[in-house]
């Protein structure tokens, strides 16, 4: 399987995050992608290509244009306001406040375009976001040009980013961008399978009222797990999208017997949808030793996930999302890919 990877992710480094009332180094760090990059060579998965340059029009097919145009401006404006360090939002237009009026200051705009404090900027963040987007589109091109599968080693991840907001380490929704790009380049129907531990709220929001993109999510129960405010089983789509959004929330402590049964059900839905193409939001924070998650999958299970996905027999694009047990995420993520190839 071919992979696409860019070194430009490395500039998105040293970000801070708020955990239990303390500012700590963010769990989403450059070494995540570096371990996966090294593991690809270690197992001989296949060639690793650099991304081609892509303009931002494909991003604007799923995100509001003003949101995308804001992202490259953030850090320059943050510095021009006399700030340094991480640009972190801290005020959001929740119930009872106005979300219809864009504010002017950079501090206010950060909150206006976010749903939490988890998408933070340093000097190299925009270039990393852009490279991650280009990695996804370049890998999508490989699949469109006839590869059975490709791996987009995206960093930063994307599945929490919605049409007009960032959050949860995510800025541009790489998987949603690629799905729309496939639709715009000949695919009639696309399925997205999100196996990250966290609900892909951004992907769900983007496609919620559409029947041409089926979204299937396996994740921690939002009643107790981030992102908390979306991801329940009764969210089944709206309008002509009714029936084309499927959520499998599961409790803390979930092991592979339960999780694998949900994967089986999700895969059957994808099979009966008769998609032309499959996109996998590949998070491996379902791992038992993940520092921020509570499922109990073991390393031996990841190839089984890949093998089940391969059985769908669809052209498949894997897009990297989360996973934080840093050394092990490489073995587990690449394990999904080798399991796919061996099936
Ligand atoms: C307080 C806890 C906030 C945020 C977890 C974000 C998970 C991100 C992810 C992605 F794939 F997007 F990377 N925890 N600081 O794993 O879903
Ligand atoms: Zn996650």
Could you walk me through the main structural features you see in this protein, from its secondary elements to its overall organization?
The chain is an alpha/beta fold. Helix content is 34%, strand content 14%. The chain is built from ten helices and ten strands. It has helices at 30-43, 65-70, 74-80, 106-112, 125-144, 174-184, 201-207, 256-273, 302-310, 326-342; strands at residues 2-4, 16-19, 22-25, 48-49, 149-152, 190-194, 213-220, 245-250, 277-282, 316-320. Strands 4-1-5-10-9-6-7-8 form an eight-stranded parallel beta sheet, with helices on both faces. The chain has a two-stranded antiparallel sheet with strand order 2-3.
Quick summary of this structure?
This protein is an alpha/beta fold and 343 residues long. The protein is built from 10 helices and 10 strands.
Name the poorly predicted regions. Answer: none
Overall morphology: globular
The secondary structure category is alpha/beta
Helix content: 25-40%
User: Biggest sheet: strands side by side, in what order?
Assistant: 4-1-5-10-9-6-7-8
Distinct compounds present: 7-[(3-aminopropyl)amino]-1,1,1-trifluoroheptane-2,2-diol, zinc ion
The portion of residues forming beta strands comes to: 5-15%
Between the first and last Cα atoms, what is the distance in angstroms? 13 Å
Q: Give the biggest beta sheet.
A: 8 strands, parallel
In total, how many beta strands?
Answer: 10
- Mean pLDDT reading: 98
So how many helices? 10
User: In sequence order, what are the helices and strands, one letter per element?
Assistant: EEEHEHHHHEHEHEEHEHEH
């Amino acid at each position: 399987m071919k992979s696409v990877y860019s070194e430009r992710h490395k500039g998105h480094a040293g970000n801070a995050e708020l955990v239990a009332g303390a500012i700590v180094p963010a769990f989403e760090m450059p070494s995540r992608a570096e371990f996966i990059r090294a593991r690809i060579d270690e197992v001989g998965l296949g060639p690793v290509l650099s991304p081609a340059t892509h303009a931002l029009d494909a991003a604007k097919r799923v995100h509001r244009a003003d949101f995308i145009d804001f992202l490259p401006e953030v850090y320059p404006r943050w510095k021009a306001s006399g700030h340094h360090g991480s640009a972190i939002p801290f005020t959001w237009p929740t119930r009872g406040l106005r979300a219809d009026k864009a504010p002017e200051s950079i501090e206010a705009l950060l909150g206006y375009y976010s749903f939490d404090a988890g998408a933070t900027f340093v000097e190299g963040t925009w270039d990393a976001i852009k490279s991650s987007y280009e990695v996804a589109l370049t890998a999508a091109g490989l699949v469109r040009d006839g590869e059975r599968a490709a791996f987009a080693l995206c960093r930063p991840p994307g599945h929490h980013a919605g049409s007009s907001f960032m959050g949860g380490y995510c800025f541009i929704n790489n998987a949603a961008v690629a799905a729309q790009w496939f639709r715009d380049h000949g695919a009639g129907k696309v399925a997205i399978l999100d196996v990250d531990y966290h609900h892909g709220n951004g992907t769900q929001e983007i496609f919620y009222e559409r029947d041409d993109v089926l979204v299937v999510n396996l994740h921690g129960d939002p009643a107790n797990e981030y992102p908390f405010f979306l991801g329940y089983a009764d969210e089944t789509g709206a309008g002509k999208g009714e029936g084309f959004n499927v959520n499998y929330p599961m409790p803390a402590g979930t092991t592979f017997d339960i999780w694998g049964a949900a994967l089986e059900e999700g895969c059957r839905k994808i099979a009966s949808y008769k998609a032309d193409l499959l996109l996998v939001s590949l998070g491996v924070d379902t791992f038992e030793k993940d520092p921020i998650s509570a499922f109990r999958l073991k390393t031996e299970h990841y190839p089984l996930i890949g093998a089940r996905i391969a059985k769908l027999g669809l052209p498949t694009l894997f897009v990297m999302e989360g996973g934080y047990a840093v050394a092990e995420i490489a073995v587990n993520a690449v394990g999904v890919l080798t399991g796919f190839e061996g099936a």
